Fold this protein.
Amino acid sequence: MPFINKIWKYSSLSIVGLEKNTGKTECLNYILNRVKNSEKVVALTSIGIDGEGIDQVTHTHKPEIEVFEGMLFATSEKHYKGKLLTAEILDITRKRTSLGRLIIARASSSGKVLLSGPADTAWLRSLIAEFRRLGANLTLVDGALSRLSLASPATTDAMVLATGAALSANIPELVRRTTFIYTLINLPQVEDCIKSKINSIDKGVWAIDNNNELHDLNISSAFSINTENVSLLSYRTRLFIAGAVSDKLINFLRIQKQIKDIEVIVKDFSKLFISPEAYNMFTRKGGRIKVLQQPELLAICINPVAPNGQQLNSQELIEALQANVSVPVYDVRQLEQSYN
Amino acid sequence: MRLRNAIDKCRSLGYMINELDLQSGLGRRVLLDSELIAQPEELQKALDEIEQIYNAYDNIKNAELFDNIKIKLAQVRDIKSTIANLSQNATLDDIELFEIKHLCLTADSIINLLNEGKIEAVKLPDLNDAIAILDPDNTRIPHFYIYDAYSEELTGLRKKIKAAKEKDGQADELYLQSVEVEDSIRTGLSDKLRPYSNDLATLLNNLAKLDILIAKASQISSEKLVKPIITKDKTSYRGLFNPPIKKNLENEEKHYQPVDIDIKHSPCLITGANMSGKTVLLKTIQLAQYLFQLGFYIPASQASIYIVDEVIVSIVDEQEEMKGLSSYAAEMLTINDMINVVKSGKRTLLLIDELARATNPTEGKAIVSAMLDFLVEHKAGSIITTHYSGIQTNARRLRVKGFIEEKVSGSLNKSNINDYIDYNLIEDDKDDVPMDAIRVAQLLGVSNELLDKAKLYITRE
């Protein structure tokens, strides 16, 4: 049972798909099946509005999550009402998602449920804490990487990445793009002395001086940085960006003459919406990116089947990807077969 | 009028409400929906209830007790629509049943805390019978599902589902059967709970009331408020102050001067120069009247107040002025409303700041005098401020003492000028206003070239 033994070391684990239909749900169900008979308590939620019965985009079958007896889970009112299992309601949140309040429940039978969950990172963090208070040893988060999702999956201690033919049907391209995300996940963490200062900041663009003091640049997001702000870089080259970072900013910084000293700090890799090209040119010229939070990447799962039916050679894909990353790579469907 | 609407008319009231340390959204909703009280008995009861809670709250021995009550109140959710569904014959779903159980159990622990502190101002109905319906295993834990204990049939089905799932991973048909059984249990539970809908509604309301009373009691200490006495024909404030303005001044390390004033069932004309605090005074009287009739304590050292049916103000707000409304037209329409209300025989408090200020002094003075005549004739409780001289009236006159030149030490500027104004009111029998404008301008260092000429014009008149 690869990587399952490792997961108990962590109190939270997210399963993040790089694209729809990259096998995230199979991966999550695989983990759930392995932990269901454990004496430890597992909790389950999702971020963003995910988990439609049929994938709205491609209309392919999308299995729901099977929750097992004794597990805790949180989902929205709407999805709770459509659950196919018996569950005891433990709490109802005051905050609302677009699908209603979140219901926190304990499954008293096994069955399927659509998962939805917290709409922002702080809420996800407090939900994980709430699960822990209710006795959960491990919280599994059905994660998404999207500009639309305000909650970051990197909030969890550990992470499993799901990638596959849905991202690209061309093995070298798929490997290149997955390896790039792998690189971002493994970006170095910022020094502890700065960490404590930035932790609670949720918005804006900040400069950090040589004494590690923060200065609010009064710029609402990195998207509004333009040539008029160049002077801000002339004496401070470390920037903390609380929100998302795009190619535009990275390219802007790359052509500045201080590029060798420039360090961009972001909350976590999920805030980086940058292309491999922009990143490579930026780092090649000496620019650095650091993160505040870094989940431990446990494994990469692949799904060789694309939604359009195209199938890649599983073994070839595993080997190609494995050559580029130092975490284990699995085809979840094959694991499932060998297990059964 | 509801508090919600009163806030729109009185910004200081909005401040007082926002400063309340309410624990629940329920408390906030009920407070904003509360009506101004016009019955003396009802108002007295409301004020006595706060006094009771305040006396208990102010006792250091009860500090922990109230902390615990607040923690419990913070767990109360506003389940108004669930209770409405129940009373309207609906079958409740698990979420709604959970909400009712959660509310009843939370209330039960609050009841225990209230008993422990012998607090009787708010009575919460005992809903242990309703709890028993939703807690068949008698665990007293605020969780809920359709328990096995409700039906042997359901217990049997659930065992079969489990066995079938373990055998071939499928139990869809059995699950559907179990949902049917659960649904009939939900209907049964809802029917059993229905007789408690009135008690549940009362419970929700009284929990809100408790939250509001504790928040009001805590504001009494923090803002230094006083219990008002309900009177019939004379409102009398000693040391009246405006909490948000006082706070702003104190933040700038300045002193707020409280004011004494009496209001009878008759008009009163207040004269005073610019900057003499007339507008703030009217706004504060408006605030105090609203607070009084909403069952709050009053920002003053002493307060006896008579109940009115309507508070109508005509105060030109800086913000409204920015909107570019024709201020004269708006003012005259408000004045007309006042006349209609007075004629309808309602008890009123009318507060008019600088009546007819936006028009020429000849007509302006005539309008002020005429309005005073009307108000005297109809014995209407009202205050009009003006800086017009030469108003003819039999109404009572007060004057703001105003600028005290003797107090000035050093130079005068925009930020310290307030220190030299005495905001106290004195009885006045003259019909002219104090001539402070030129004096103040001079002390502010405005050129004599202008001021000497202005003085000449006054002597010529």
In short: The first strand of chain B starts at residue 229 and ends at 231. The longest helix of chain B spans residues 197-223.
